[in-house]
Structure formats: structure tokens, C-alpha cells
Write a structure and sequence with these properties.
The structure is a single chain. Helices cover 37% and strands 17% of the residues. The chain is α+β, with helices and mostly antiparallel strands. The protein has 3 domains: 74 residues, no CATH class; 169 residues, 2-Layer Sandwich (HIT family, subunit A), CATH 3.30.428; 28 residues, no CATH class. Strands 3-4-5-7-6 form a 5-stranded antiparallel beta sheet. α1 runs antiparallel to α4 and α6 packs antiparallel against α7. The longest helix has 15 residues. The termini are far apart. The mean pLDDT is 93. Bound molecules: zinc ion (ZN). The site of zinc ion has 6 residues, from loops.
Length: 315
């Protein structure tokens, strides 16, 4: 059965464009090595095979492979944290090197920034960095209120930690590499019991206000094309004059996206305050649609329209 899964995963790679025909033998051999196999037996697909079997979802393929790895002693523990670490390693074998992804992005960007982000968003899902089958479990709806149509979301796709992994994480050596989950050193990192695997992750470099930053999607996509823009340096969140220059620099480069800072405040602010970053995406939030209750002008900036929106909380 493992040969069958290998064949299906290679088919998936070809279908999604992650790999090319010329890569087929190379990828099969990489997978054989991972599964400690010495040879490949091409599975024979018979006509009597039910058609449902012919197309297998990525989730089924990875589950089958991970079960095999556990049953054959390649994977030591069978809980979600360990399974996620292992199946990311599998996917990492199918993902092109960072330079190839960046070059492709730049090539598309020269034609149209929309094409570039469409490619990168699909890519981030095809690589399973964004796990489509988990995101599907999230509950989302809108509700009409006097403040407009509000979005309600319940995130069900973040995996719950299992007790074994929590116990192992407690005993694990404290590591400061990568310094946090936003650092660029996550790209290609194998992960460990207390840090997610990112062999399938690729980052797009962007320049904001003369600084090197990275652009990536959130693996948990709370809204359409939910992206994270982060400083290449691991420095604390801050909101100052330069923040505005950086934000505007980003939307100048990606006019179809919004971007904002979750602020450098504990509890109400961003969840990772130790690393300067913004959240953005291709989505219009209710607050952006809210009517302006009172407007004012800022002395010296007659072109800037400012106002306070009708909103239930202070903003
Ligand atoms: Zn960091």
C-alpha cells in the first residue's frame, strides 16, 4: 500500500504543479529514502479499481503514509503533534527551493501583483502549509447589527495539543532557534515537539521603508488571503511614525490588499509582541465598511480625510 500512496502523492505533486515530470524519479527516490525502502514497485491500477480510489485526497494520502511510518517504527509517537511534524517532512520533499518560489513570484509580480499573490496563495495551500482540510472545519457567518454586517468566526482548525506532546515539551531542552514562530529561520525548519515543522514553508522578501521584511500567509487563515508581513529581524512590536511608512509601503506594492498593525499592546494587541509584524489580506472587514460619524481634518495635511467610524468599541 505504501507504493500506492507514493504514486498518489507524486500524482498530486504533478497535478498541483509543485513538481514537474522531470522530477518524478527524483521525488519517488526521496520518498523511498524517507520510508526506508530500497526499491519502488509501481502499483498496477486495474480497471476494476473503484473510481473513488483513483483520486485520493491529500489528507488521505498523508494519513496513509503517516500510519505506515508509525507501524514500521519510522515515527515514534502516533499523536497529532508528531504526525504533523512527520507529514510536513513528507510535503517538504515536494516543495521547490525558496529561490525558485521567489523568482516565480517576482516574474508574476512584474505582470500583475494580483497574479503573484494568487500564485503564492494557491502554492501555500498546495504545499499543505495551509491545511485546507482543517480550515474547512472553521465556522464562519455574518450577523446584521446596527453597526453593519459583522463577521463571526470560530477557529476549529488549530490542532489541540495532546498530553504526550505537552509532557515531552516540558522535558525538551529550551531552544532559542528559531527565536519565535515568525522568524525567517522557520523557512524549511524541521520543527520539534514544541515548535511546528516548516519544511513546506517559503517566504517572499519585501522591502518596507528601506528595511528587509518577509511576506507569508497565516497557516490558519482567519479570512481570505490572510497574510503576515514581518521584520527579518526579531525585534519587538512597535507603533510609531515609521509604522505608517511601512504600512503604506506595503499597500503601494500590493494595492489589492489591506494591511494593519495589531498594536504593540499586551492582551488586546498582537499575539506575538516580541516580533514586529503586520496582518493583511484580501478582505474587507466590517470596520472598513462602517460609516463615518464625524470627520475632521489634520492641519498641514489637507488631502487626508480622517473620521471616527460608527463602531461599538473604541478603535
Ligand atoms: Zn521572531
Amino acid at each position: 500500500m505504501i507504493y500506492y500512496y507514493i504514486t498518489k502523492l507524486v500524482e498530486y505533486g504533478l497535478d498541483t504543479g509543485l513538481i514537474h515530470k522531470q522530477d518524478r524519479v527524483y521525488i519517488i527516490n526521496s520518498l523511498l529514502e524517507l520510508f526506508q525502502l530500497e526499491q519502488y514497485e509501481e502499483p498496477v491500477q486495474t480497471v476494476s479499481e473503484p473510481s473513488a480510489q483513483l483520486k485520493m485526497s491529500l489528507e488521505e494520502i498523508l494519513n496513509g503514509m503517516t500510519d505506515y511510518a508509525y507501524e514500521h517504527g519510522i515515527l515514534q509517537e502516533n499523536s497529532i503533534v508528531y504526525r504533523d511534524l512527520f507529514d510536513t517532512k513528507i510535503m517538504g520533499l515536494l516543495v521547490p527551493r525558496p529561490s525558485e518560489v521567489v523568482n516565480k513570484f517576482k516574474e508574476l509580480y512584474r505582470m500583475d501583483p494580483v497574479k503573484a499573490t494568487q500564485y503564492y496563495y494557491k502554492f501555500s495551500q498546495d504545499t499543505d502549509y495551509i491545511r485546507r482540510y482543517r480550515i474547512k472545519k472553521d465556522k464562519k457567518w455574518t450577523i446584521d447589527t446596527e453597526y453593519g454586517s459583522l463577521d463571526i468566526t470560530i477557529n476549529l482548525s488549530k490542532p489541540e495539543k495532546d498530553p504526550k506532546a505537552i509532557a515531552a515539551a516540558k522535558l525538551a531542552k529550551q531552544s532559542s532557534y528559531p527565536k519565535c514562530q515568525l522568524c525567517r529561520e522557520n523557512e524549511g525548519y524541521a520543527g520539534r515537539v514544541n515548535h511546528p515543522a516548516r519544511q513546506n514553508h517559503r517566504i517572499i522578501p519585501v522591502e518596507l521603508d528601506g528595511e528587509q521584511w518577509g511576506f507569508q500567509y497565516s497557516p490558519y487563515v482567519y479570512y481570505n488571503e490572510h497574510c503576515i508581513v514581518f521584520n527579518y529581524e526579531h525585534i519587538p512590536m512597535i507603533v510609531n511614525k515609521a509604522t505608517l511608512r511601512k504600512l503604506f509601503d506595503f499597500v503601494k506594492q500590493f494595492p489589492h490588499y489591506f494591511v494593519g498593525s495589531n498594536a504593540d499592546l499586551p492582551i488586546v494587541g498582537g499575539s506575538i509582541l516580541t516580533h514586529e509584524h503586520f496582518q493583511g489580506g484580501n478582505y474587507t472587514f466590517a470596520m472598513a465598511k462602517a460609516p463615518v460619524e464625524s470627520s475632521f481634518t489634520i492641519p498641514g495635511y489637507p488631502d487626508v480625510r480622517a473620521g471616527i467610524v460608527k463602531w461599538p468599541m473604541s478603535v
